[in-house]
Every structure is written in C-alpha cells, then in structure tokens.
Amino acid sequence: MMSRSYTNLLDLASGNFPVMGKEKERKRFPRVMTVPGSIAELDDDQTNSVTSENPSSVAGERMIIVANLLPLKAKRRPDNKGWNFSWNEDSLLLRVKDGLPEDMEVLYVGSLSVDVDPIEQDDVANYLLEKFKCVPAFLPPHLLGKYYDGFCKKQLWPLFHYMLPFSADHGGRFDRSMWEAYVSVNRLFSQKVVEVLNPEDDFVWIHDYHLMVLPTFLRRRFVRLRMGFFLHSPFPSSEIYRTLPVREEILKALLNSDLIGFHTFDYARHFLSCCSWMLGLEYQSKRGYIGLEYYGRTVGIKIMPVGIHMGHIESTMKLADKEKKFEELKHQFEGKTVLLGVDDMDIFKGINLKLLAMEQLLKQHPKWQGRIVLVQICNPARGKGIDLVEIKAEIEESCHRINKEFGKPGYEPIVFIHRPVSISERMSYYSIAECVVVTAVRDGMNLTPYEYTVCRQGVSGAETGSNLSGPKKSMLVISEFIGCSPSLSGAIRVNPWNFESTAEAMNEAISMAESEKELRHEKHYRYLRTHDVAFWSRSFLQDMERTCADHFSKRCWGIGLGFGFRVVALDPNFRKLSVDDIVAAYCRSKSRAILLDYDGTLMPPTSIIKTPSSQIISVLNRLCGDPNNTVFMVSGRGRESLSSWFSPCKKLGLAAEHGYFFRWPQHEDWETYGQGSEFGWMQLAEPVMKSYTEATDGSEIEQKESSLVWHYQDADPGFGFAQAKEILDHLESVLANEPVAVKSGQFIVEVKPQGVSKGIVAEKIFTSMAEKGKQADFVLCIGDDRSDEDMFEIIGSAVSRRILPYNTEVFGCTVGQKPSKAKYYLDDTSEVVTMLGSVAEASDSPVSSDNESDISV
Predict the structure, then answer these.
(1) Which of 18, 452, 472, 746 is 20 to 30 A from 422 (CA-CA)?
(2) What family does the database annotate (predicted)?
(3) From its phi and psi, is residue 458 left (phi > 0), alpha (psi between -120 and 50) or beta?
(4) In angstroms, what CA-CA distances link 170 with 155, 158, 246, 347, 678?
(5) Cβ–Cβ under 8 Å, residues 291 and 260
(6) Mind listing the pLDDT tens digit for each residue in 744-797?
C-alpha cells in the first residue's frame, strides 16, 4: 500500500496541490509535511508522521510550553520508593499562563532536574501528565552531558555572551559530537511534543537557546502548526555569531517558527543582521511590526522584555516578614548603608568588577569607610560553566583583600554569601538595601532590578511603618549590557569594565536626595506594574495569533533536506505552470502575445556570459515564425545590448530600459516613450550617487540612456541596505520637482522617467494588436523580478478593463516559488526555455531559420 506521504510527494511533483478551504473549515485541510530523503541528524521516523486528518482528542485551543526544564520541584521520598513533585513557584514559565485566556489549557514539556530510574519513568510520566499537565523528557545520561554541559554551556552560552574560543582551554573548540547530542535531544523533545499535540488547535511556545533547532523537527511534521520561539539570552552581533560552525543550521531552524521573540531591539537587530549576511533576507517593518519574508511565509520578530509576577513577589515578602529575617538583617546592618548584589556564580556576571568598584569607592571617598557595606550574594552555578574555579578564587581573593585593607573589628565592607539563598531571604536583603548594583558584562535580561524595585514598594494595604509597607524609594546602578537596562530609564547605567566610573555611580546613587530616589523609584514601579509577566505572555500570544492568521489561506508544503528544510507558503491560486495545459491553450488560440523578460528568466542570474545561447535564439525564432504570434523581449537592459544580442531574431519585438525604448518586430527604428524626455535631472542625480558610491565599498553606478542605477549587491549587506534607504530619501528630495521616479529593487536604487514600466509596454502591445484586428486571445508573460510585477498586474486586470477580450487565456508566470502577482511559476530558467521549446514545437507554422547561425556565443 502506498503511503500518504509518498502520494503527497507525487502530487507536489506534478504540480497538483490540495485545494485550500476557508478558515472555519481548517480541520478538514490535508497537511503535506514530508520531504524526499533525510539525514542522520534529522532521522525522525517520517513514516509515522502525524497528519492533520487525524481527529483531535481535545477540543479548544491549548498552549504547549516547551523548555529545557519543567517548572517542577522533585524530591525523593524518605523511604526511597517514588518521588514527591510540586510546582516550582520561582519558575518564570509557571507564570506565563497568567497572561493567557482563562479557558486556554496549558501543558508543559521539558526535562526534570533529577535522574529518574528507567523503571520508574512511565509511572512518573503518567503521574505528571495527570496531576500537573507536564510531559517529562527523560534524557539519557550519555546525551545529557554533551547536550547541556557540552554544547549549551561550552558552545552556545559563551558565544552568545561574546566569548570566542581563541584557544582550546579558553572557551572550548567546536565539538561535532556535542552538536549531534544537541540535535538528538531536540529531536527527543519534538517526539514528546507530538505525543500530546493537537496540531489544528494548539499553540507551541519554545523557550531559550537549549531548543533552537526544535522548530525544524516540529515544522517537518506539521507545516501549519502555530509555533513561537523566545530567546531569553542575548543574541550576539553577526561578527560573533558567524564564527559558529553550525550557524546556518540554527538560523534556518529558528526561521521555521512563526514568531521569534527577543528581550531588546539590539538582540533582534543582531539576529536580523545574521539573516541578511548569511541568508540574504531583509526585514520589513509595517505598522509597527517587524517581519522577515521567508519562502512566502512572514516570520514575525517580537521585541518584548519579560516582566515579573507581582503577586508572587508580594506573597514572598509576606513570608519573609513572618520568618523575621528582615528584623535580623536590619539589626545586623544597623547604622550602615547597604549596597546589594545578587548574581549567579558565572564568568559573565562581572562580580569581581563590582568588588573592584567598591574598593575604588572606599579609596576615593573615605567618608564611606566604616559606613557602607556591599552584600554580594552568589547563587551556585547552574551547570559546569567555563572557568568557574578560577572566577570563584578571584572573587574570594578580592573580598579578602578589601576586607583586610578597609575592615576593622565589627565591620567588613564586603559580605560574601556563596550558598543557595531562598527567595524570601532575598526579599529581606532587598528590603534593607539602599541600592542594587548589577555589573554583568553581558546578560540576557536579569530580573534582579525588577524584584528589588517591587520589593521596595512594599505590599499594598500594609500598615505604614510595618516591614511590609516599604520605603517606596530605590536606586539602581546597572550595566548597560544587560537586557533590562533599556526599560529602566531612571537607573544609573554604567560600563562595568570601567570600575572607576562604576564607583562614582555607586557614590552618586547613595548620595542622591531622598526626593529624587522616590521619583526614580515611582517611574520604575509604574513600568513594572503594567509590564509584568502576564502582559509579556499575553502580548506574545496576540502577536503569534496575528502572524499565524493566514496559515490556512495559503497552500503550504515542505521542501529541503536536513536543516535546509523550510515551508513554502503561497497563494492557493498560485501553481506550477503545466506544459500540457499551456500547449493546449496555445493550440486553441488564434492570436497570441508572448512577453518575455531576459535576465533571470531566459538567462540564469549567476551566469557570467550574458549573451543568449543558440538554443534560446532557436526557440525565439520558431515562436516568431508563427504569424499568429507577437513576441516581445521586455528587459531592463539598454537597447544596444538587446539589438546586438537578438539581431538574428528579425521578427522579435524589443523593449529596452523597462520600455523607455521600444522597437516593433521587423523594424529598425526605435520609438521613445511619450515625446521623449529632458535628461537634465541626471546632472542632479549623478553627484548624489557618486557620493554614496565613494562611501559604500562594493557599490557602483550603471548609467543607461534613460536612467541611472545604483547597485550595491557586492557591498556589506547591512551597510548597503542602510545606504540604499538613505540614497532613496536623498534622491527623492533632490529630484522632487523633476519628471522622474525613484524606485528601489533587489540590491538597486533606480532613477528613471515617470510612467516608464513594463506594464505600460504590455498595455501598448495589446492595444496595437487590437487596432490591427488581431486582438489577443492568448497571453503568456514570464519574468522574475519586481519590475516584471508591473506586467503581471496589467495582464491580471486587462480582461476586466476590456483591454483583452473576456475569453482570453492569460498565463502570468514568475521564475521561482515566491510571492507574486503572477498566477503560475516555473522553478528556474532551464524550465522556462524547455517550456518555450514545447510551445514552439506545437506551432502550426514551419520553423523559421532567420540567420540562426549568425549569433556568436
């Protein structure tokens, strides 16, 4: 029995795609999700792929949150028989559901922080699904080490924090086996998601760098799955990211998501720059939303810093008050001004830089000696990170040195706490701290300043003067390199590497007037109250819904192998041009118009030799030899090139420079668009273009008879794109009163006379044929770029505008599978030439041999 996957591929190969329905009928849509072949890294049991025709077991929309760790705490029972599980109240992912609709069910997929014996795994999995709606992914020990401590912590984590492996003992070299373990774990997670997934109703939200290739595994199975990804770490600049050996694999995997989220615009900008550099993708901003066009799909880019859960902080403060820890700390540091640092033991947290700044503060401002204390809480490292032993030794040495130099009996300027600190104890430290200092050299978000600000506000409704009322003032000294920095405009931002300026910022913070501290605190608290974790998750879901809104209005199918897999999404009416269909229509017709672009349509864009081959000349002459055919080459090239190249084709009409120059078949003279133009504007435009050419390495100017074109294909992609925007605005301003149009295209900015377009050429040809009594009943128009869209637009509306008769068979065809106003496509230039050859063979006229051998190739 032939599998459904295989028959889908046969349909795709023949251009017969499933017919799309309406949004409300989406459960009946067939899903085409398989591709021919696979690689070991993506061996995903394709024969067992789930199709959308399987009935959903659960009605209604659900959110499946996928992360490395489940938001659970696990503890072995005292009798060593089984486990006790509870929610991890400190987990951010547990709070995501607060921003989702009340009737939306939330499931979690992730691993556990403990090792569960294989014998117990089935029982644990069933219990967690039933009691907590959690699906555990049990990672084999031989994969876990290479996946988490290996690829995640020794490859991605350092790289995303701008640390390059310059030597084998500094950062670690790329290890292919670690990458393979990373891929294997991501595949295992995908299998766990599929176990509970209802593809028509569910949203999938993937979190953080541990699962960056998971979108590809899921997209291969479900091309219309609504899927988002949020990166909680920084995304490095393109210069750093491009050093990763598997850079394109990860980028392409992320682009299989519908929405990709980042904390800051900087992180998003770096990602977009990488997409431009490596994949040639340029983003577009429309009505405040940023999107990348990727094979007909719009991948949304979301910029939204995560918030905190206000209610959880307040309840923790009440717990801390009951534990009397606040009173104990207040007594311990009585008469002292407390600065507080709360960081993980990590090389990127800049803890020693903070200690050096404290040392500098005590030296430069002796008045604070004996009066100021820096409490530095260091949470134990989350994994086997880089240089942990060395950084811990350095911190302890600095603490010892500073306390020895500035301490005295009963006073130590540095209080170093290196142990797990509960959140309630942390709240007590926040309550007594006059200022929180964060000097991370690179950090994704860092919620410590948020927690501190909310804690200093106190609990609403608490009695004035109680521990819970809060002083309602706070000061922050934070690194400019952390994700929360842009959100906290009242904080004092510092470059942590300059510990002298950090010391001055710390002095400014604790010396500031009380009224100023209150104003800054109020500004921060107002922001945090309205931008909490519920706001963050609600906003992400809304953008995911918006981005996925047209999933079921397009024809979607998967192509590509391995991590080159992607989904092509096109208009339901957009299909591959069938040679049999067009030959049949050609034979039925009596008067035909055939309009062809040249570069990228008949000639491959990568070809160095641009002159037409003898095969192209032969095909064109055979088409022109039929008296029922009117054949035109409509190109952006100059008339001299076209006249020379196509001189053997005497019956071929030519339109040069997008139609500014026009030559009818069997004529020698060229017509000019309109009454001709004055080209004085070139003296204004050329100096502008020259200045940008000098400033943009890799750019050049092409001067045609009727237009000027600035090319930047060989320039730096990011800089060239930025310069193109600038030159477009500059030229529009300079030429505002001139009869010209300034337009941008693919790696070009062009200035040409107003009204000149390939669409006007098409309309002119149709009108002329009608005047001669040969009104076209067959139109074939083929092109590949933005300028050809004008032709597609004209022929698409020509029948309704009565330029063509109602029974005209119209075939607008673009080259390549991409969004277009054309109704059909062919994959490449070779298919175009082959199709034209088939049409020529069907012609009733004898083959013409107008000097076919005269062309020199």
Answers:
(1) 472
(2) In the N-terminal section; belongs to the glycosyltransferase 20 family. In the C-terminal section; belongs to the trehalose phosphatase family.
(3) left
(4) 11, 10, 20, 12, 65
(5) no
(6) 877 889 998 888 889 999 999 999 998 888 889 999 999 998 888 889 998 888
pLDDT tens, 563-592? 888 887 877 778 889 999 999 999 999 999
User: For residue 755, what pLDDT is reported?
Assistant: 83
What's the rounded Cα separation, in Å, for the pair 821 and 809?
A: 16
Phi, psi dihedral angles at 708 (to 5 degrees) = -120, 135
Instruction: Give dist(CA 848, CA 295) in Å, integer.
Output: 41
Question: What pLDDT, on the 0 to 100 scale, is given for residue 589?
Answer: 92
Q: Is 199 helix (H, G, I), strand (E, B) or coil?
A: coil
Q: To which H or E segment does residue 424 belong?
A: helix 423-432
Nearest one of 637, 632, 642, 598 to 616, comparing CA atoms: 598
Place of tokens 């032939």: 2
List Cβ neighbours of 298 (8 Å cut-off, separation of 6 or more): 291, 292, 547
**Contact at 8 Å (CB) between 403 and 413?**
yes
With a CB cutoff of 8 Å and minimum separation 6, the contacts of 742 are: 728, 731, 732, 735, 749, 750, 751
**E-strand spans in 526-685?**
555-559, 566-570, 575-576, 592-596, 629-634, 653-656, 661-663, 671-672
Greatest mean pLDDT among 53-57, 421-425, 529-533: 529-533
pLDDT of 225 over the 90 cut:
yes
Q: How far apart are CA 701 and CA 709, in angstroms?
A: 6
User: SS3 for 597?
Assistant: coil
> DSSP letters along 515-553, please?
HHHHHHHHHHHHHHHHSSHHHHHHHHHHHHHHHTTTGGG
Which two structure tokens, joined as six digits, stand for 142? 């031989």
Name which of 210, 261, 269 is nearest 70 in CA terms: 210
pLDDT at 185: 97
Tell me how far apart the alpha carbons of residues 250 and 151 are, in angstroms, rounded to a whole number: 13
Per-residue pLDDT reduced to its tens digit, 371-381? 999 999 998 87
Let me know: does 205 contact 64? Beta carbons within 8 Å: yes
What span, in angstroms and rounded, lies between the C-alpha atoms of 51 and 32? 8
**Count of CB atoms within 10 A of residue 450's CB?**
27
Comparing CA positions, the residue from 149, 139, 144, 302 lying closest to residue 232 is: 302
Percentage of residues of the chain with pLDDT beyond 90: 60
Residue 207 near residue 230, CB atoms below 8 Å: yes
**Which residues lie across from 781 on neighbouring strands?**
595, 812
Kindly give, in sequence order, each residue whose CB lies less than 8 Å from that of residue 52, ignoring residues fewer than 6 positions away: 27, 29, 30, 31, 199, 200, 222, 224
Q: What pLDDT, on the 0 to 100 scale, is given for residue 32?
A: 31
Note the pLDDT tens digit of each residue in 486-505: 999 999 999 999 999 999 99
Q: What is the pLDDT of residues 304-351, one digit of tens each?
A: 999 999 988 888 888 877 777 888 898 999 999 999 999 999 889 999
